[in-house]
Amino acid sequence: MTLHEVTLHEVTLHEVTLHEMTLHEVTLHEMTLHGKARRTGRDGPRAAGLVVGA
Asked: What CA–CA distance (Å, rounded) separates 50 from 44?
């Protein structure tokens, strides 16, 4: 490979890494949204239970 080809190859690897990082961030974001939804679901019945208990 020429130096130019090696550089192109490294840039491509870098783009793939960036793409994987972006996918990872999207996954983290979805997990966070999921966690918030689940937490809200858990707090809802507990809050309702407190109201009924009072």
From this structure: 10
Mean pLDDT for each 10-residue chunk of the chain (54 residues)?
83 84 83 70 57 56
What 3-state class would DSSP assign to 48?
A: helix
CA 18 distance to own-chain centroid: 14
C-alpha–C-alpha distance, residues 18 and 16, integer Å = 5
Question: Contact, 1 vs 9, CB < 8 A?
Answer: yes
Are the beta carbons of 19 and 26 closer than 8 angstroms? Answer: no
Decide: pTM greater than 0.90.
no
User: CA 30, CA 54: separation in Å to the nearest integer?
Assistant: 36
